[in-house]
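Proteins fold reproducibly. Look at a sample protein:
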Amino acid sequence: MKLYILGISGTFMSGLAILAKEAGFEVTGCDAQCYSPVKELLQQKNIPWHEGYEVNNAFLEADCVIVGNAMKRGVPIVEAMLAQKKPYISGPQWLFEQVLCKRRVIAIAGTHGKTTTTSMLAHILDQAGLQPGFLIGGVAPNFQTNARLGAGEWFVIEADEYDSAFFDKRPKFMHYHHEIAVLHNLEFDHADIYTHLEAIEQQFPYYFRPVPTNGVVLMPRADEALNRVIQQGLYSPLETMSVGDSADWSAQPLTEGFMIARQHQPLATVNWKLLGHFNRANGLSAFAASQRAGVTPDQAAHALSTFIPVKRRLELKGEVRGISVYDDFAHHPTAIQKTLEALKASQRHPRIWAVLEFASYTMKTGVHADKMLQALSSADEVLVLSPQAFELKICNAPSWRVYPTTQQMIEAIMVGAKAGDAVLVMSNRGFENIHMRLLQALQPQAPVTP
């Protein structure tokens, strides 16, 4: 059967393409502006795709079209799909019907930490010999991919609250029918489809309802929004988590790593060098979920000690002339603040340059403008790519510098950065490959031969 995927370069849709190919389907698709590392991943998996949204032969020959949620009415290939009455389906629904209905599903939800925790949990189950399937919203270095069908009974999936398709406005996670539900936090995001936090909270009771009575919901003890949600009804056991405080599952920070306890009884110690409180919280979530899947505490702790962070999550892209360049997907004030604080607390760098592109719809609208000054307070230098309307609301901070082009940002860093500095690039898009361009620009120039 031939599948054609609209929006194939998205992190979810590219993973779905990989799963479909591993399941024996013939897969191709289309998209615009495919960014690294997904572009290279699709090439490695030998999944062809077309640039742009015009009708092509592969589309015409397809038996079914899987529609990504970035696709809108008015896009030429969408209009052709409807006019020709081609069979079509949303990505989440296809995933359930073809893959998840046959598996035991662990879903990871929340505003922050989904991708990292999903990667951690998949790695734990894999190291325990359970051969899990997974779909992650980023390329996991431990697997060198963002998706795998797997041969075991468990499937780990990042559970997004974003809508499924232009014809299916339900959150993606409503299709997954999971038996273990992990939550990290709940904040306002996705301003293009939700008007306020309360609108997002209204969706999350549907995240809990598929969980059977022999399943479990794992969530942080102190998150106010999540505690409001569970008051609307919970039909399965609830277990709470906390880093540093008392809960059903707790993590006590150590110099490098943390100790995990269940009901105050120590279970295991995780040794690692990952930065930040948020990574300990992610690790605790993955550990707790793995215990419900049958992994032993020692197996889980050992696996976490060998975990490699997901690409674009405080990822060190390179170091030239003593200047370290990091890439991070952070595009929400909370994620930006936690990432900067983690890098600052590491004491690896005397100065941190925060280099931002406000690319998401939510950030462009300026709804988080009042939080950004605090979010960026750990940075010594803040460089912002001109964010148009957003600029008027927050870019009057005296320590911020706004530039109309990425090239001018690179030139400013070249002039001001010194050995030991960190340049932290933050965006949820490609940012015109500024990371690698900066590293290349920092390279010493070879002397000209007379």
